[in-house]
Amino acid sequence: MALPTIVDREEWLAARTALLAREKELTRARDALSADRRRLPMVRVEKDYTFTGPDGPASLLDLFEGRDQLILTHFMFDPSWEDGCPSCTAGADEVSRGLLEHLHTRGTTLAFCSRAPIEKIQRYKDKRGWDFPWWSSYGSDFNVDFHVTLDPAQAPVMYNFRSADEWAHSGNPLSIEPGTPQEQPGDSVFLRVGSDVFHSYSDFARGTEWTGGSYAFLDLTPLGRQEDWEEPKGRAESVRAARPDFAE
Fold this sequence. Notes:
The protein has helices at 9-38, 86-93, 97-105, 118-128, 142-145, 164-169, 214-218; strands at residues 43-44, 50-53, 56-59, 69-74, 108-114, 134-136, 149-150, 158-159, 162-163, 182-183, 186-193, 196-204. By secondary structure, it is an alpha+beta fold. The strands form 4 sheets. The protein has a 6-stranded mixed sheet. Helix 4 links the parallel strand 5 (108-114) and strand 6 (134-136). It starts with 8 loop residues before the first helix and ends in a 30-residue tail after the last helix.
């Protein structure tokens, strides 16, 4: 196990101060990026999607719960599965009542959405002890239209803003057979203006990391995420694959 170099306080302070300068650069860059994200144009959602919750059917507008903004996390849960995705489960475990309330004070609703029927969602939600809103998009085009259910038989495949051809040319083909849908993680953000709903932002793949807290905290530590892609190598005694399910 390769631990950090041991130095005296003065040498540590010099190294920490040098890193602080880079952290401040990153903070300013992240602030600028967030500002550009807020400047993105938005698209009116024209299709009438129907979701199902514990109390019955709902529209996309209903999912806002009367607030101005909606962050919808696409939780991977295929209708044929009995349990939800382990990685999505790990992220959902970190959603606290305090987080939801803090977002509510800023006029923002955080909810989850999956393609599984509401009966399976509710059973799994009860099993995990969660109380956040979780909707079923079963029977609608919502997941396909927002590129988190990939199936060439239903629509041209696109994930993380790349087409299937672009993925193939990158050396990482998606390899999805028509008629065998593949679930993917992501987040979609919507803004309500009166009764009109607009899609403003989506993220996928590693872009979803910043809607979960554990990675942000682990990135502050000497051992980091303890995943096999990280530098420096050998830092953690036991490394894991880059699967954010936090399983033991």
